[in-house]
C-alpha cells in the first residue's frame, strides 16, 4: 500500500516551509508593503505570483486537468530535482532507471548522492518485469523513472508494464512524457486519480517549441505536490515568463500545426535515411527524433560535426547509433546533402 508519509524524508515532513505574505494573501492589495520591493514601477518591480494561479489554471485547462494536480517548474529538471530532495535520503535511498533512457535521472541521483539501479530494457526497448520484480520490495527504493516515448529510442513504453509497476510498487513511478505530444497515443494524465503514486512530467521545450523559456510541468495528486511545494523556491517562475506563457497559450492551434509539420518531416527523414547503404536500421519513433544504427557511428558523427551538422552520438548506450532530431526542411536538406557526400566519399567513382 502506498504511504506518502513513509516515503517522504523525515526532515521534509518536519519542515516548516518558507511563507511570504504574498502567498498567504489572495487577491489584489491596495498597497504592497510586505516584500521590501522598490515601489517605483518598471513593470517588473514586484515579485511574481508565487503560486502562479492564473498561469496554472491556463496550463491545466490545456491538459484538461485540475490546477491542484499541477506544479510548474523551472524546466522539468527542477521537477526531477525536487522529487529527489523530497523523497530520497542521501547515501541511503535508491532509484531505478530502465536503460537506455534520459541521462538526467542518473545525473540528478548522483548530485543528490542517491544510488541508481540500472535495469536494461529488452531488445524491443520494453521493461523486463522479471528483472524489476526482485527490487520492488526494497524499502530503500523510492522512485522508478520511465520515459515514454523513451529517449533515445523513441518508442512508447508498454502500458501494461506501467500499470503493473503502479499497482505493485510502494514508491513513486515517475512517467516522463516530454515527447508524448508527438504521439497519437493518449497521455496518462486521465489515470492520475487512479494511482496515488503516479507522477507525470511534461515540458514546454519540445512540442510547444519553448526550450529557451525553461518551463516544466509536474503533474501528481495534491498530497505529493504539497510535499514538493514545501521545498520549491517561492518565486521560481518569473513574471516575464508567466506573462509570456499566458499570451502564448492563446495560440494552441499553431502548436498543433507545428507538431503535424514535424511529424511530416520525420517521415521524410526516415525515407531519405533508408536510401543510404551505411544505414543499418531505423528504429520506430513516436517522438521528434529518430534513432539510427549505422556502420560506424563515431566516424559519421565526427564527419557531420566537421561540416557543422550536429546530431547526438548514442553509441555508448546502443552500439553504432546516432539520434537525429527532426529539424526544418532546410536543416534536413543540409543533413541529406552531407550524408550523400559522406556516402560518395566512402564509395569513390574511379
Overview of the molecule:
This protein has 350 residues and is an alpha/beta fold. The chain folds into two domains: 12-237, Type I PLP-dependent aspartate aminotransferase-like (Major domain) (Aspartate Aminotransferase, domain 2), CATH 3.40.640; 253-346, Aspartate Aminotransferase, domain 1 (Alpha-Beta Complex), CATH 3.90.1150. It is 36% helix and 16% strand. The protein contains 13 helices and eleven strands. Helix 5 packs across helix 6 (104-111). The radius of gyration is 22 Å and the shape is globular. The protein starts with a helix and ends with a helix. The mean pLDDT is 94.
What gyration radius follows from the Cα positions, in whole Å? Answer: 22 Å
Biggest sheet strand order reads 1-7-6-5-4-2-3
Q: Please state the second-level CATH architecture of the largest domain.
A: 3-Layer(aba) Sandwich
What name is given to the CATH topology of the largest domain? Aspartate Aminotransferase, domain 2
Helical run tally:
13
At the first level of CATH, the class of the largest domain is Alpha Beta
Overall number of structural domains: 2
**Unreliable residue stretches:** none
Beta fraction of the residues?
15-25%
Q: Tell me the series of helices and strands, N- to C-terminal.
A: HHHHEHEHEHEHEEEHHHEEHEEH
Major sheet = 7 strands, mixed
Distance between the termini: 71 Å
Query: Could you give me the name of the CATH homologous superfamily of the largest domain?
Result: Type I PLP-dependent aspartate aminotransferase-like (Major domain)
Shape: globular
Give the helix level as a range of percent: 25-40%
Number of strand elements: 11
Oligomer: single chain
Derived from helix and strand composition plus strand pairing, the structural class reads alpha/beta
Task: Summarize model confidence as the mean pLDDT.
Answer: 94
Amino acid at each position: 500500500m502506498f504511504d506518502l508519509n513513509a516515503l517522504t524524508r523525515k526532515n521534509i515532513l518536519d519542515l516548516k516551509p518558507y511563507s511570504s505574505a504574498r502567498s498567504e494573501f489572495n487577491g489584489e492589495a491596495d498597497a504592497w508593503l510586505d516584500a521590501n520591493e522598490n515601489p517605483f514601477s518598471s513593470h517588473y518591480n514586484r515579485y511574481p505570483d508565487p503560486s502562479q494561479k492564473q498561469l496554472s489554471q491556463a496550463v491545466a485547462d490545456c491538459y484538461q486537468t485540475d490546477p491542484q494536480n499541477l506544479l510548474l517548474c523551472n524546466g522539468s529538471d527542477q521537477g526531477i530535482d525536487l522529487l529527489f530532495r523530497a523523497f530520497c535520503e542521501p547515501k541511503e535511498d535508491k532509484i531505478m532507471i530502465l536503460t537506455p533512457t534520459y541521462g538526467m535521472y542518473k545525473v540528478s541521483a548522483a548530485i543528490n548522492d542517491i544510488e541508481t539501479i540500472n535495469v536494461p530494457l529488452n531488445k524491443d526497448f520494453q521493461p523486463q518485469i522479471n528483472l524489476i520484480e526482485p527490487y520492488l520490495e526494497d524499502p530503500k527504493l523510492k522512485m522508478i523513472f520511465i520515459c515514454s516515448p523513451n529517449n533515445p529510442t523513441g518508442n512508447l513504453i508498454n502500458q501494461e508494464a506501467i500499470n503493473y509497476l503502479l499497482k505493485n510498487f510502494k514508491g513513486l513511478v515517475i512517467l516522463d512524457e516530454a515527447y508524448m505530444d508527438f504521439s497519437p497515443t493518449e497521455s496518462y494524465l486521465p489515470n492520475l486519480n487512479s494511482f496515488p503514486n503516479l507522477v507525470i512530467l511534461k515540458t514546454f521545450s519540445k512540442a510547444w517549441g519553448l526550450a529557451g523559456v525553461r518551463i516544466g510541468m509536474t503533474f501528481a495528486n495534491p498530497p505529493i505536490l504539497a510535499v514538493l511545494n514545501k521545498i520549491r523556491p517561492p518565486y521560481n517562475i518569473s513574471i516575464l515568463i508567466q506573462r509570456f506563457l499566458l499570451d502564448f497559450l492563446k495560440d494552441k492551434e499553431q502548436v498543433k500545426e507545428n507538431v503535424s509539420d514535424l511529424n511530416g518531416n520525420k517521415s521524410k527523414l526516415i525515407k531519405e535515411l533508408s536510401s543510404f547503404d551505411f544505414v543499418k536500421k531505423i528504429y520506430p519513433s513516436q517522438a521528434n527524433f529518430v534513432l539510427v544504427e549505422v556502420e560506424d557511428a563515431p566516424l559519421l558523427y565526427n564527419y557531420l560535426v566537421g561540416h557543422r551538422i550536429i546530431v547526438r552520438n548514442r553509441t555508448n548506450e546502443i552500439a553504432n547509433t546516432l539520434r537525429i532530431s527532426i529539424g526544418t526542411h532546410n536543416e534536413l536538406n543540409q543533413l541529406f546533402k552531407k550524408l550523400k557526400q559522406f556516402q560518395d566519399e566512402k564509395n569513390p567513382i574511379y
